[in-house]
Write a structure and sequence with these properties.
By secondary structure, the chain is of the alpha+beta class. It folds into two domains: 66 residues, no CATH class; 36 residues, no CATH class. It is built from four helices and four strands. It starts with a strand and ends in a 21-residue tail after the last helix.
Length: 117
């Protein structure tokens, strides 16, 4: 885990022993930095590690969560047949890089989807 200082100019690594994917281990680390006067972050970004998100909600309930698009995209593409991955990847790229919700691509209509055989 790392955090940026108040000027967003350097990263401060946070390292601790613990069990992988353990909410309590992650919460212990967060409680430790909170005791050392780290203020609640306004936003935390990360992958789908459920233990981490549970720990953040427990220790810093006011912190907003944001999942990273790399892992989210990989999870979506893993669920699709290989033939549909390029189109889905392009659509996800357009969504993640859209200026606002209104400028994203429209969902495909049933007639525009490739037929499955």
């Amino acid at each position: 885990m790392s955090r940026r200082d108040h000027e967003c100019s350097r990263r401060v690594p946070l390292i601790a022993d613990g069990y992988r994917e353990s909410t309590e281990s992650r919460a212990d680390l967060l409680r430790d930095v909170k005791r050392r006067r780290m203020q609640a972050p306004s936003l935390v970004a990360g992958d789908g590690a459920l233990a981490f998100w549970s720990a953040v909600a427990d220790v810093f309930p006011e912190t907003r969560h944001q999942r990273d698009w790399v892992h989210k995209t990989m999870n979506v593409l893993d669920c699709l047949p290989a033939a549909e991955e390029p189109g889905a990847k392009k659509a996800i790229f357009e969504i993640t890089n859209a200026e606002n919700k209104g400028s994203t691509c429209a969902p495909p209509t049933p007639s525009s989807r490739p037929s499955r055989r």
